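Minimal example, chain plus coproporphyrinogen III.
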Amino acid sequence: MAGRAAYGVSEAAPAALAAEEPSALFLRACRRLPVERTPVWLLRQAGRYLPEYRALRERHAMLELVRTPELAAQVTLMPIERFALDAAIVFSDILPPLQGMGLDLSFAPGDGPRIANPVARARDVDLLAAPPAEETMAETLAAIGLVRAELEPRGIPVIGFAGAPLTLASYAIEGRSSRDFTRTRAFMLSEPAAWRRLLQKLVTVQADYLLAQAAAGAQALQLFDSWAGRAVSREDYARFVAPHNRELFARVAAAGVPVINFSLGVGAWLEEAAACGGDVVGLDWQLPLDEAWARVGEERAVQGNLDPAALLAPWRELRARIDDVLDRAGGRPGHVFNVGHGLVPGTPVESVQRLVEHVRERTSR
Ligand code: CP3
């Protein structure tokens, strides 16, 4: 692969190292190994709340950042340079893999994602391509290699990620972020066979993409099922979504790196969502961490789950909320501190700074 060679991605398979006990706190916590303090990273840690990100965005479009390995690597490292975070998540988005499938994606300024040719009927599903990630996501794979080379000497692991089949299907069908996912459910109920083919195609593409990210140097992988809790009912999740998620997690297990299952808003069926797979269960901010952990089972690691809105509150309140999450985790092995959904654009940089320092100080053992 020209793209890989050009950006110096090592040929050695990082997965081969997975059998050894990792030293990075984040990777240790993912495997429920004892740690000297609780690792912390934050969903959307590289984003619009950072002035240096906004400055770069004045000169480059969102997809230009994603499609230029040096720029994507630079954005990935922005929060790492500022805060003592324990992991870096590669800068990209869940939607660019849809471009390789033939969907015309854009990010309208201040307006969120748009797909100009959404899936409207069964026939559209069969027209979607499923090319290998090395062809369609080469820039993100190259960015992972660049970030890994930079962070390896500092002992900070790199996380790769992808969108889950349902969440991506909702964008493919709605053509944009939706409030109610009516089109998505209408398609699912009217064309159940085409729905299965669509999710199956997404499983193929996303499994290949996640495995390619691990091969490119990602030391953990996160699957985002952001609309699992809003787009479908519990019964329809079990019938139309879970089988595809289970297959995806089963395939990705071959990467030999920890996999994080983050399904937003599934409190009413957390057990079922967690049972789909993954080594670590990402908990959203709506359930108390101890109760959620008991429901997914003590044999799983968990990640979460501070309300991102708490970072907009005064320090006294923010600190109390951080302490509450840490108290509920109770110092048990297998907790990765994080927010329970992405940081919002108005988040004060100072709040992130204090959060990271406080988690480090309070959990040092
Ligand atoms: O720091 C990180 O977390 C890594 C980068 C990352 C982005 N998007 C960058 C981004 C990650 C992991 C994502 C995931 C993502 N993207 C999800 C799943 C996580 C979640 O929040 O539930 C979803 C649903 C998307 C789709 C998406 N991308 C939307 C709806 C939007 C517009 C609304 C918004 O939040 O801005 C985006 C754009 C986007 N993705 C931005 C960033 C930094 C803002 C782009 C800009 O600079 O204008």
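Residues 43-48, 57, 62, 89, 91, 93-95, 107, 112-113, 161, 177, 224, 226, 264, 342 surround coproporphyrinogen III (CB under 6 Å). The chain has a mean pLDDT of 94.
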